């Protein structure tokens, strides 16, 4: 019994949290906002064997970029364990993470959603796609590692989240663009969990208005301008980020900030790719990622 699935990394440029305390169902919580999914992300392999003499009933290993915790994966696994009797089974879970963890690239949601699809395939549970998405969304919101990333990476592309919630409840509007390149530079992580717990209540005005503005313009350059405005508003801009933003702006290149990480991204026409890379390569303390939009969203991979 095996399953393999991929979920793209997702970057949020601005958002409005929906965490109404009276609303207890995790699937109704989430965020509105806008962002995009990229070609890199998380591939998860699940192998289910007999338990035999293992002490625990699962093992989670990570290839590529590493993480400090695995609570998001454990939440997803536990939801699937409720669907049947698997006492004599051993779940071998391997995440292959091709983007740095904690830098605003939605690695935790890509972990959750790729695992949810892979478990459905391995167990042959045949859940409908929205239910698979819901399990991953609930894991993210429960662990406070994200609010809208699962909904967004479920659909892929450059998206506006117009209604918050898990897949099947929340809705997105996809915006089509010319063929663009996405180049990012990542410096250091910012904990989304810490931000949601400590700062979220202070920041809930601007994101909703920006959603409406982007629905009008449907323009990726406008999206980036608003992302910079939002980053200043929530006060996450560091001097290092500001320096890059200034240099790109002086060269007529649009850019935005990935929430939440010390990460600057630039969505540009493909012809401008080298110009951006030349500028970013001077900053040797950052990790540069070159990508394109993933328009498909999370999916099972046929092995
Ligand atoms: N299986 C897992 N793999 C990776 N991270 C996990 C896992 N389970 C829980 N996490 C937690 O998620 C954190 C990363 O989430 P965080 O939200 O901070 O960053 P991100 O998902 O990379 O980016 P974003 O800011 O866009 O959400 C890790 O530091 C870790 O504590
Ligand atoms: C809270 C958040 C910015 C963290 O990545 C994201 O999940 C979102 O846009 O809801």
Automatic annotation (TrEMBL):
It catalyses: (R)-pantoate + ATP = (R)-4-phosphopantoate + ADP + H(+). Pathway: Cofactor biosynthesis; coenzyme A biosynthesis. Keywords: ATP-binding, Coenzyme A biosynthesis, Kinase, Nucleotide-binding, Transferase. Its EC number is 2.7.1.169. GO terms for biological process: coenzyme A biosynthetic process. Residues 84-157 form the GHMP kinase N-terminal domain. It holds the Pfam family GHMP_kinases_N. One of its GO terms (molecular function) is kinase activity. It comes from the Archaea. Phosphorylates (R)-pantoate to form (R)-4-phosphopantoate in the CoA biosynthesis pathway. Belongs to the GHMP kinase family. PoK subfamily. This is Pantoate kinase. It comes from Nitrosopumilus piranensis. The lineage of its organism: Archaea, Nitrososphaerota, Nitrososphaeria, Nitrosopumilales, Nitrosopumilaceae.
């Amino acid at each position: 019994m095996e399953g393999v699935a991929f979920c793209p990394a997702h970057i949020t440029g601005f958002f409005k949290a929906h965490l109404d305390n009276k609303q207890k169902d995790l699937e109704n919580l989430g965020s509105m906002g806008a962002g995009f999914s990229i070609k890199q992300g998380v591939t998860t392999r699940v192998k289910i064997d007999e338990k035999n003499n293992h002490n625990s009933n699962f093992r989670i290993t990570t290839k590529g970029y590493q993480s400090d915790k695995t609570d998001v994966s454990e939440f997803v696994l536990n939801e699937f364990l409720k669907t049947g009797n698997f006492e004599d089974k051993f779940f071998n879970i391997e995440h292959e993470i091709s983007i740095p963890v904690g830098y605003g690239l939605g690695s935790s949601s890509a972990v959750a959603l790729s695992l949810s699809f892979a478990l459905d395939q391995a167990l042959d549970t045949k859940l409908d796609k929205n239910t698979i998405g819901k399990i991953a969304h609930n894991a993210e919101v429960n662990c406070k590692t994200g609010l809208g990333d699962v909904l967004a990476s479920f659909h892929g592309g450059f998206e506006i989240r117009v209604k918050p919630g898990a897949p099947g409840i929340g809705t997105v509007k996809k915006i089509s663009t010319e063929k663009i390149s996405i180049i990012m530079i990542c410096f250091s992580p910012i904990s989304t969990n810490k931000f949601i717990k400590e700062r979220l209540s202070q920041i809930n005005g601007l994101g909703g208005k920006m959603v409406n503005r982007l629905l009008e313009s449907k323009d990726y350059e406008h999206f980036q301008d608003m992302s910079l405005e939002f980053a200043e508003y929530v006060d996450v801009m560091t001097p290092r980020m500001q320096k890059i933003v200034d240099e790109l702006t002086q060269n007529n290149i649009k850019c935005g900030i990935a929430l939440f990480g010390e990460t600057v991204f630039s969505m540009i026409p493909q012809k401008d790719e080298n110009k951006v890379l030349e500028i970013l390569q001077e900053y040797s303390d950052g990790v540069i990622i070159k990508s394109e939009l993933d328009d498909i969203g999370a999916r099972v991979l046929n092995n």
